[in-house]
From TrEMBL:
Protein source organism: Vitrella brassicaformis
Active site: H51
GO BP: any one term: signal transduction
Entry binding sites for AMP: H51, M52, R53, L54, H55, D96, D207, Q258
Pfam families referenced in this protein's UniProt entry, alphabetically: PDEase_I
Keyword tags: Hydrolase, Metal-binding
Gene Ontology MF terms: 3',5'-cyclic-nucleotide phosphodiesterase activity; metal ion binding
Sites where the protein binds Zn(2+) 2: D96
Positions that bind Zn(2+) 1: H55, H95, D96, D207
InterPro entries registered for this protein in UniProt: HD/PDEase_dom (IPR003607), PDEase (IPR023088), PDEase_catalytic_dom (IPR002073), PDEase_catalytic_dom_sf (IPR036971), PDEase_CS (IPR023174)
Keyword Hydrolase part of the UniProt annotation: yes
Coiled-coil stretches noted in the UniProt entry, renumbered to this chain: none
Protein name: PDEase domain-containing protein
Length: 353
């Protein structure tokens, strides 16, 4: 972000969107498009340790990687369009616009005006969408001015669907829907509903992709997340409110919390997504290595001691860390749902014995 003078989100989103060839199809004026991206980028709060423009750019990059390297675009014969893939990138870019650096739960507990406005339901996600579309009501940001009405309705529906799906309360619902699909599903013409499900899961997976990055990058993002979490916990404590889970700097074991996050949220999501996008097995490989790193007894015991002293910090990288070695060892993964179930059965039997 430093090298591009703080324009990481604007430049990356513009580059990726141009490569989708959808700007012409949507009759989007390039000047207005660039001005909108500049305004969206400016709308991210740079004083947030985590939810700032660099995170948004990272999610755009992740979504683009899934679509391009993961060859999701090659599924066009099954119904995907350039316009729909543009909406994936746009949704990723705006998904945390004007984020205040606190959770939905905090806004609800403090009776924040946004919580009142959105009736305690997907408060932040609803705000991100509404604020950007309100921004586009201004003439200089109205990129869809010349887009056909029917196409605009499709685009808006998709953006709303994807950004709302980043609400963690929707995680298990969407993942459950994905897991109901069998292996023959992808060989068929995908319905609009099915494509929306996949696109939503792509943006959601990119949003929570930190544990699936190479360990050095993962640790940098983890540091930013816990800074923001602990800052909210401090505010809750000062207000006399119950401190939200994982946000109490005096009781949260970083290593154990990361292990739990991977086991409960990330592993089921990425295992399911890797059946649709096989290249995501590379992400799963990093995830497995990172889980092993956090769960090592030395890391866990040190974090426990630091927690008791109130001096928690992230552990250093292993001396022998090499991303290429991680992939070589951990890329030997089951590829289909049947293989995954067989592998899980083998682990269960091994644990029993």
């Amino acid at each position: 972000c430093f090298r591009v003078r703080g324009n990481c989100l604007r430049l990356l989103t513009n580059f990726v969107a141009q490569s989708s060839f959808a700007l012409e199809e949507l009759c989007i004026d390039c000047k207005k498009w660039d001005e909108l991206l500049f305004a969206v980028q400016k709308g991210y709060h740079q004083d947030n340790p985590y939810h700032m423009r660099l995170h948004a750019a990272d999610v755009v990059h992740g979504a683009y990687w899934f679509c391009k390297v993961g060859e999701l675009w090659s599924l066009s014969l099954k119904g995907f369009t350039n316009v729909e893939l543009f909406t994936v990138i746009f949704s990723a870019a705006i998904h945390d616009y004007d984020h205040p650096g606190v959770s939905n739960n905090f806004l609800i507990k403090t009776n924040d005006p946004l919580a009142i406005l959105y009736n305690d339901k997907a408060v932040l996600e609803s705000h991100h969408i509404a604020a950007v579309f309100q921004l586009m009501q201004q003439s200089k940001y109205n990129i869809f001015k010349h887009t056909p009405a029917a196409t605009y309705s499709i685009v808006r529906e998709a953006i709303i669907h994807m950004v709302l799906a980043t609400d963690m309360s929707q995680h298990f619902v969407k993942l459950g829907l994905l897991k109901t699909k069998d292996e023959e599903w992808l060989k068929q013409e995908l319905s609009r509903e099915d494509r929306l499900l996949i696109m939503s899961m792509v943006v959601h997976a990119a949003d929570v992709s930190n544990p699936c990055r190479p360990l050095p990058l993962y640790l940098q993002w983890t540091d930013k997340v816990i800074q923001e979490f602990f800052a909210q916990g401090d505010r809750e404590k000062a207000l006399g409110l119950p401190i939200s889970p994982l946000m109490n700097r005096g009781t949260t074991n970083i290593a154990r919390s990361q292990c739990g996050f991977i086991d409960v949220i990330i592993a089921p999501l990425y295992n399911a997504m890797s059946e649709i996008i096989p290249q995501m097995r590379e992400c799963v490989a990093h995830m497995r290595y990172n889980k092993d790193f956090w769960s090592s007894m030395s890391v866990l015991s040190i974090r426990e001691e630091e927690m008791r002293k109130g001096t928690q910090k992230l552990p250093p990288l292993p001396d022998d860390f090499a991303a290429s070695a991680v992939l070589k060892v951990h890329m030997k993964l089951p590829r289909t749902r049947t293989q995954l179930r067989h592998k899980e059965k083998q682990r269960t039997l091994r644990d029993i014995h």
